[in-house]
Design a protein that fits this description.
- The protein is of the alpha/beta class.
- It has one domain (10-181, 205-261): 3-Layer(aba) Sandwich (Rossmann fold).
- It has helices spanning 12-30, 53-63, 85-90, 103-109, 113-116, 131-142, 156-162, 195-198, 209-218, 274-280; strands at 70-74, 94-99, 119-123, 147-150, 170-174, 185-186, 221-226, 232-237, 285-288, 293-296.
- The strands form 2 sheets. Strands 3-2-1-4-5-8-7 form a 7-stranded mixed β-sheet, sandwiched between helices. Strands 6-9-10 form a 3-stranded antiparallel β-sheet, with no helix packed on it.
- Helix 1 (12-30) crosses helix 2 (53-63).
- The two termini are 35 Å apart.
- The relative contact order is 0.12.
Length: 300
C-alpha cells in the first residue's frame, strides 16, 4: 500500500504516477469488456481514496464517457484522502469540495491542483435544511454535476432524503455496515449531529445500506454495488445504464465489516471487531425510516 500524503509529501509524485498508470491500464481493459455482469469490487484501486473507491469511480467515468467530470463531494476532511482528489489528476475534474472544517481550504490554497483545475473548497456544515441551497450553489458554480459524493458521518440518510432535483450521473453514498442489511434504519433526525459527541466509539452514525438504497432508488438510481471495505454504496442514474451491466451481490455481502476504527473512552483506537463494536452501542436508538419507529441497535 502506498503511503498517504500525510505520512510523506515526497511520495506524492510517485503516488500520482502509479495511479495514472493503473487508470490507463484499466481504461484500455474496459474497452475490451462487454460491460455485462461487472462486479465493481473487481475494478478497485486506491490512490487518494480511503479504500478502493478511486478504481470504481474511474471505471464508471470510463463507461459513462465522463472525460472531465464535474464533482460535488461533501465530507472531504483535508482533501488528501477523499473520492474526488484523484479525479483532479486523472481527468482534470472540476470539483466543489465541502467539509464543516476548513482544513481542505488550507491544503488546496497551497496545492498546484487549485490553478491546474477548477476546484473550490467550501467550509459549510451540511444539514437536511441547507442541502438544497448547497447543491444549487454547487450546480451554479460547476454548471452541472456528474458525480455526487456524500460522507458526513451522521445524517447522511436525512440529507439525501431532503435533497430535491438530484440529476448527477453517479452517486457515492456512505452507509454504516454495523446496522446490517435487513432493515431501513438511520440515526434519528437531528439538525446538527456529531458522531464523536453521540458516543465515544465513533460508531453511532449514518444509516443502513438498505435505507440508503431505498432512498436512492426513489430518486431514480440503480444500486450497482459497494466497495470491499463495505462503507460506500455506488449508484448510477437509471436512464444511463441497464441493471444487467453490473453483478450485484446479496446485500449481506456488503455489510461484511472488517476495518476496525472504533475508539475507547480515551479516544484511542480499540481495534474491536464488528460484534464487539455493536455491543458497545447496543443501547442506542435508531429509526426505522419506512415506518418512523424507534428501535434499539441491540434489537437488530
Amino acid at each position: 500500500m502506498i503511503e498517504n500524503l500525510s505520512t510523506s509529501e515526497a511520495h506524492y509524485p510517485i503516488k500520482v504516477q502509479l495511479g495514472l498508470s493503473t487508470a490507463m491500464i484499466q481504461n484500455l481493459a474496459t474497452k475490451t469488456l462487454t460491460n455485462v455482469g461487472i462486479d465493481i469490487r473487481s475494478v478497485e484501486f486506491q490512490v487518494f481514496s480511503q479504500f478502493g473507491e478511486d478504481g470504481i469511480i474511474n471505471y464508471l467515468c470510463e463507461i459513462l464517457h465522463l472525460a472531465k467530470p464535474r464533482v460535488l463531494e461533501i465530507g472531504v476532511e483535508d482533501f488528501q484522502e477523499c473520492n474526488s482528489h484523484f479525479l483532479a489528476h486523472s481527468r482534470n475534474a472540476s470539483i466543489v469540495a465541502i467539509d464543516k472544517y476548513s482544513h481542505h481550504e488550507a491544503y488546496l490554497s497551497n496545492s498546484k491542483l487549485r490553478w491546474k483545475n477548477t476546484i473550490e473548497g467550501w467550509t459549510r456544515e451540511v444539514t437536511p435544511s441547507n442541502i438544497n441551497d448547497i447543491y444549487k450553489d454547487s450546480e451554479n458554480f460547476l454548471g452541472y454535476i456528474d458525480i455526487f459524493s456524500l460522507d458526513i458521518d451522521g445524517l447522511d440518510f436525512w440529507v439525501l432524503q431532503a435533497l430535491e432535483g438530484l440529476r448527477a450521473k453517479i452517486l457515492i453514498l456512505e452507509y454504516n455496515p454495523l446496522f446490517g442489511f435487513e432493515k431501513c434504519v438511520s440515526v434519528p433526525f437531528e439538525e446538527k449531529f456529531d458522531r464523536s459527541e453521540k458516543h465515544f466509539s465513533n460508531k453511532y452514525y449514518g444509516c443502513s445500506l438498505k435505507a440508503i438504497i431505498d432512498e436512492a432508488v426513489k430518486k431514480g438510481y440503480y444500486f450497482i454495488g459497494a466497495n470491499r471495505a463495505c462503507n460506500n454504496a455506488f449508484f448510477v442514474r437509471r436512464d444511463l445504464v441497464a441493471e444487467e451491466e453490473f453483478e450485484v451481490q446479496p446485500l449481506e455481502t456488503y455489510t461484511d465489516l472488517t476495518f476496525r476504527e472504533s475508539r475507547n473512552s480515551n479516544g484511542e483506537l480499540s481495534y474491536f471487531n464488528a460484534i464487539r463494536e455493536l455491543y458497545e452501542i447496543s443501547d442506542l436508538f435508531l429509526v426505522e425510516t419506512k415506518i418512523n419507529q424507534m428501535l434499539k441497535i441491540g434489537e437488530l
